[in-house]
Each structure stands twice: as C-alpha cells, then as structure tokens.
Design a protein that fits this description.
It is a single chain. The protein is mainly β and 320 residues long. It contains two helices and 27 strands. The strands form seven sheets. It has a five-stranded antiparallel β-sheet, covered by helices on one side. The longest helix has 7 residues, at 18-24.
Length: 320
C-alpha cells in the first residue's frame, strides 16, 4: 500500500491512516466531527478520536491507545482495526515490517482481552500448636494413640481439616476453635506417621501445621476408658476427672487453660496437677482445682502408668 500519511509508531503501537487500511480490507468508512464509522458486510465499527472506547459489532471494547489526528488524517491503531475486521497481524522486527492477512470470515464480535490471571493464594501461616500428643518426633507404644493439640490462637473450627498419613480423619475428630482430639478407630501401622492440620485462623488467613511421631511395638496393654467429663463439656474452676484404667496403675492428671501456654510437664499459674491410684477395678477419681481466672478452653492430660511400666495417655478439651 501507498500512504499519503506514513504510519507512525507511538509507545510501541503502530498507527496507520484510517481510510487506507479500512478500505483495503474491504470496509467503507465515514468520518465526521471526530467520529469514525466503518462497515464491512454486517459488521460495524465505531471509534472516536481521542477515545479508548470502541464499538465492534454492537459490543463495547477498549483500545490500548486512542485514534488521533495528524496532518489532517485520522490515524488508528493497526492491530486493533485489522483484528476487528477479521484479519491477522504479524510484525517482523528485523525488517520493521507489518504483515496483515485477511482470511476466513469476518469476526462477528470484538477481540477479547484475556483477563489477567488471578493472584496466587497467600501462603499458609503458622497458627502455633501446643500440648501436642504424641509429641513431635517421639515414639509411642500404642497402635491407637490419641492425636491432639491446642491452637495458640482461635481458629475457624468449620475450616479445620486433620490428616493422618494423608488420610482425612476430620469427620471422626472433636474440633473446637482452640483445640482438636482424634482417637483412631483403627490400628496404626508400626513406623513413622505424619499429622497435618490446615484451616483458617478466626477472621484471618489460612494456616498449616504438621508434626511426626513413630509407632513402636506395644509392651503392655494399658488403657484409659470411660473418661468424664466428656469432650467439650463446660466445667468450673474445680471439677473431678474420672475414668477406668489398668488396675494398680498410677494416674497423673495435669490441667491448664489456654491462657497458659506452658507445656503439660510444667505446672505454672493457671495450671494444676494431681496424682492418684486406682480402685481394685481400675476406677480412678482425680480432683482438679484451677484458678477462677480461666480463659479460652481447658486442656486436661491424663497419663496412666501400669505396674508393668506400660502407659496410656488421653487428653480432654473442656470449656470454662
């Protein structure tokens, strides 16, 4: 093509005289008072000098750069106009040549701009776990150990998911906004195990935590059953913990509120510990007396040590 006004490059865009390109592609053009209307078959295109908005086939679309006047000629962005009229545009940077190929049917709708990809989700944060059972990196001699932990801050209990070795056990676990407890209903295989916890902090971001422990062959057959109070029950500052264990065992009970983030093996303000024996049938009663200034939830850890040295551990999560 020969132009009476040479093409102009601005900000990485190539602008060409309106009438020359439109008519070469088979469109008729009408320009009046800054408004450009082009027609090709049933397709209509409307542009305005100085405006980034255009209408193509009755659909509103945007231009990367607006048409403008130069030397009495209206210059328009070549790629947009060519593609709107059903042509393909390719640029050879080595020769600074633009190739426009018109083939196939005329586009019936404006070229679509690809929506930018959504931002990647924020990486999960650490919510902080305390009073973990079994403790991280330890070995246990029970095939069905209690798996539990307390959150250092409130979480959205409805979003919490618990996985053991990749198996989701959330539906069988007790979960609150400050803790969870899962008693396996199947024997864990001997060897290493991984516990993964994920969810959302209350009115906050996602979190993810995990730890590991190892199951070893069991030497004894100690147990703790029939615990009272039950999971999630409300108690006062003083209450009894009762249950059934191996006769002759010594039972140690340590209780702490979530306001006290020390480990169970430590007894500090806001914590209480007591040790009792069992009745001949294995029944035990341990009286717990915490301070009246309770907050969050109450964690109670019960450890029974049988005469043969075998142990059993259970944890209760209660409400003040």
């Amino acid at each position: 093509m020969t132009f009476d006004q040479p093409p102009v490059e601005q900000a990485g865009r190539l602008f060409v005289p309106l009438r020359g390109v439109f008519e070469k592609l088979g469109a008729s053009v009408v320009y009046q008072n800054g408004t450009i209307n082009a027609t090709l078959g049933n397709l209509t295109i409307g542009l305005q000098v100085g405006s980034n908005q255009a209408m193509v086939g009755g659909h509103a679309t945007s231009l990367d750069a607006p048409p403008f006047l130069l030397g009495g000629r209206v210059l328009v962005p070549l790629r947009f106009i060519s593609q709107a009229l059903g042509a393909s545009v390719n640029y050879d940077s080595s020769t600074q040549t633009v190739y426009v190929n018109q083939g196939g049917n005329v586009a019936a709708a404006p070229p679509r701009r690809e929506a930018p990809p959504p931002p990647p989700p924020a990486a999960p944060v650490a919510v902080g776990l305390i009073r973990i059972e079994p403790a991280d990196g330890t070995s246990v001699e029970r095939r069905r150990p209690e798996i539990s932990a307390t959150f250092e801050q409130s979480v959205d209990a409805n979003t919490v998911r618990i996985s053991i070795d990749g198996r989701d056990v959330s539906s069988d676990a007790y979960i609150s906004d400050r803790s969870f407890v899962y008693d396996p209903n199947y024997d864990l295989p001997l060897g290493p195990h991984s516990v993964a916890i994920r969810g959302r902090i209350a009115q906050g971001p996602r979190f993810s935590e995990h730890w590991t422990f190892v199951s070893q062959p069991q030497r004894g057959a100690n147990y703790i059953n029939d615990l009272r109070p039950g999971e999630g029950m409300a108690v006062g500052g003083a209450f009894d913990v009762t249950g059934l264990t191996e006769p002759g065992s010594r039972v140690k009970v340590v209780a702490a509120s979530t306001a006290n983030v020390t480990q169970f093996v430590q007894v500090a303000e806001g914590s209480a510990a007591t040790e009792v024996g069992t009745a001949p049938d294995g029944r035990f009663v341990a009286h717990v007396n915490l301070s009246d200034q309770l907050a969050g939830s109450i964690d109670v850890r019960i450890v029974s040590t049988a005469p043969d040295g075998s142990t059993s551990v259970r944890t209760l999560r209660l409400r003040p």
